[in-house]
Amino acid sequence: MTSSGRARTQDVGGPPLSGDVTGGRALLGEARAQRPQQKAASVGRNRRSGLNPDMGTIRPVLLTVLFLSSASGSYPRAHNVTWKSTNFKTILTWEPKPSADYSYTVEFSAVGADKQRNSHCIRSSVTRCDLSSSLSDLNANYVADVLSEPPLGATSSLIEFPYSSSPRFCPYKDTDVGRLDFKLQVSEDKKKTTLYVTDPLTALFEDGRQLNIRDIFSSQLQYKVTYWKNKSTGKKVRLSASNVIEMTDLDRAKSYCFKVQAYIPSRSLDKQLGELSRTQCSDGDNQSVFEVYSVGVIAAAIFLILLLMGLVIAVTVVCYKRREAAQHSGKEGMPLQDV
């Protein structure tokens, strides 16, 4: 024992006696001698009961793990958690439909931000959640968790509920662009065909006005026109940055068919093209013969028709004369009858 230890002992209990010190050392030695015997006895009892000596420490941990496992298994986890988004109308869907014993709650956040909840998707019995207006930062990457919880009005002793997470979703990069509408107009001289494309509306609003896809994608939005001659299989493609598309390289005498779709080259390849529009065809077949064919072609056609008619008449006359001649020769060869 150090001098400082001694001084503290003295302050608390007065000056120590030599007999007390000797007795204390003897008791300390006896206690140290008994420790190995107690440990050996404890190990012997554990071995007789089939327990590992360290199970006293491990057992509480195992019980905690088993409790949490049974708790998380009390409600089925959601699966097939998927984002479905068209024109920024974004729906989170999952399976299966819950029974009366549990419900679903959706939590979502931008990656790295705090979790949020949509008031329409708390303790719900449906398997979809509309998050269109909740994903305010269109360029952020979002993740959503679908929690399996007690039904509305019920309680549970669980601290944490089982959940399933969605893949990442970025509205600007991942929403699908729906089908475009367009009007087709052919000029009077048939030299120009114009397509007037209407940009579809989105599920987003700004200052009370509903936004269309041009408002969001701005100069990134282009249009891909696929066109071909009516009743033909060969197709051509044209890109346009404007929604008013003039086609001047078409044959005046032909009817053409058109399809239009949105094209966003800044996106990944599988997300660059929107849904194809309905097919519309121009009325090239309503043109007059003189607009379609030149005078020389028309004259040649008339000449061929007259020549064909002349041949038909000539063959008919020849056949008729031969038939008459055959009938006449037949009458002359018949024998005279006796009177």
Automatic annotation (TrEMBL):
Q: Tell me which residues make up the Fibronectin type-III domain.
A: 62-151
Region feature (Disordered): 1-54
This protein's UniProt keywords: Blood coagulation, Disulfide bond, Glycoprotein, Hemostasis, Lipoprotein, Membrane, Palmitate, Signal, Transmembrane, Transmembrane helix
Give the GO molecular function terms. Answer: cytokine receptor activity
Listed under GO biological process in this entry are: blood coagulation
GO CC, sorted alphabetically, is: plasma membrane
Q: Does the keyword Lipoprotein apply?
A: yes
- One Pfam family from the UniProt entry? Interfer-bind
Q: Which residues form the Interferon/interleukin receptor domain?
A: 184-282
Name of the protein? Tissue factor
Q: Which organism is it from?
A: Gasterosteus aculeatus aculeatus (three-spined stickleback)
- Regions that span the bilayer: 292-320
Q: How does it assemble?
A: Interacts with HSPE; the interaction, inhibited by heparin, promotes the generation of activated factor X and activates coagulation in the presence of activated factor VII.
**Where is this chain's protein located in or outside the cell?**
Membrane
InterPro entries under this entry?
Answer: FN3_dom (IPR003961), FN3_sf (IPR036116), Ig-like_fold (IPR013783), Interferon/interleukin_rcp_dom (IPR015373), Tissue_factor (IPR001187), Type-II_Cytokine-TF_Rcpt (IPR050650)
* Family, as annotated: Belongs to the tissue factor family.
What membrane topology does the UniProt entry give? Single-pass type I membrane protein
Functional note:
Initiates blood coagulation by forming a complex with circulating factor VII or VIIa. The [TF:VIIa] complex activates factors IX or X by specific limited proteolysis. TF plays a role in normal hemostasis by initiating the cell-surface assembly and propagation of the coagulation protease cascade.
